[in-house]
Amino acid sequence: MLDRDTHLLLVEDEPVLREVTATRLRDHGYEVVQAASGEAAIERLSEFAFDVVITDLRLPGVDGTAVVEAARDRYDEIVVVVVTGYGTVPDAVAAIKQGASDFVTKPVEFEHLLHVLSSALEQRRLKTENAYLRSQLDARYRFDGIVGRSQAMRDLFEMLETVSATASTILITGETGTGKELVARAIHQNSPRSKQRFVALNCGAIPETLLEAEMFGHVRGAFTGAVANRPGRFEQAHRGTLFLDEVGTMNASLQAKLLRALQEREFERVGDTRPIKVDVRIIAATNADLGRMVEEGTLREDLYYRLNVIPVHLPPLRARREDIPALVRGFLDRLGAEQLPPRTDVAVSQEAMRQLMAFPWPGNVRQLENAIERALALSPGRSHIDVGDLPPEVRQADPDEPEDPARLPEDGIDLRAHLQRIERDLVEAALARSGGNKQQAARLLGIKRTTLVEKTKRMAP
After folding, report:
1. pLDDT in tens, 388-404
2. Considering the chain, what percentage of its residues have pLDDT values greater than 70?
3. 134: pLDDT confidence band, cut at 50, 70 and 90?
4. What span, in angstroms and rounded, lies between the C-alpha atoms of 50 and 284?
5. Within 10 A of 174 (CB to CB), how many other CB atoms are there?
6. Based on C-alpha coordinates, what's the Rg of the chain?
């Protein structure tokens, strides 16, 4: 029997053979999840960090080679064993070159399969203890420091490449911690303005009475404490990019002045009447529903349309769990290199990765980064991070098996809350796929735009 639960994905299109093999593997201590096709296997791999994958090479549709690639591309430490017929041994050898650990031939001798699994798992254990052989992230899954391999993020990268070259105003929406400023900086760095300044202003962090002076500057004597002329963020960002975070927190008076600055590309400092011309690219960000604020009368409609020229929506981390392994690897590389002495050999165990993927991350990517930084601090001198190094709330997540929306727990379920959570995640994913375009998102969901707007209103915090 195994020392601990080892989660195994069995990919086989013959139902009888798959069921018999799964039963025997369970008898030997494996936690087995079955997949009848390559497509189903790849979907499972995007949701859960398995220890082992056993896959037939000959599958209808997406074949076993693609399953091997998907498994190895996502998880550095996963063990993949391929099953092949006698006449396709060369294909198995090619799969090993692609990252598979070993292969067995049909008809499978079960004792031999157990031996192959045991040997592969032992090799993984030794590799984890001695050195972490890291592979570099494929460039397809990066955009100027932003990491993600989910379809929503790849669509986002494609969109960012396009909009970065323009001078249009961009509105970035998403929950707190999703990386809105990181995206804004990436747009700036890939724009024709990259050699000029990127100036950030958090509108929600500055008292309302001082925000106007901070944004537009002031002249000497404009108010108590104004002992000299001072340029504002608009002037500082001349010919560059101005990032306005939490833009929905401004009062009505400042909204009107910001609208004029956007329309005319000019403004006056506080206490002055002379207009100042600027050439600034505006990127705004918010975690609020600005459309709802317009309907409630707390945000000017004309300002909303001036800001929302190109909408960019960042999905929450819970809606793109398959990005977590890549994000973790990126954080380990960066944070490990910053330590003294640098730690470049640190890995995350598959068991710990399951906990990370099971947790809903209400604080999104920022919270995940903090968790990895904490884990590094609690594991000095070790080459791997385990479950005990993770924050308590992450350790309490239930990763026993991949999330199945249709699975009914033994103690029952709150059906309404469960369905609301599924609906919210699908709406978030559709908005992310469409870059925040509600008409296109509604089309992806097969509903009317007005229905989508009503759903987003109900979902708003």
Report:
1. 999 999 998 877 644 55
2. 89
3. very low
4. 40
5. 22
6. 26
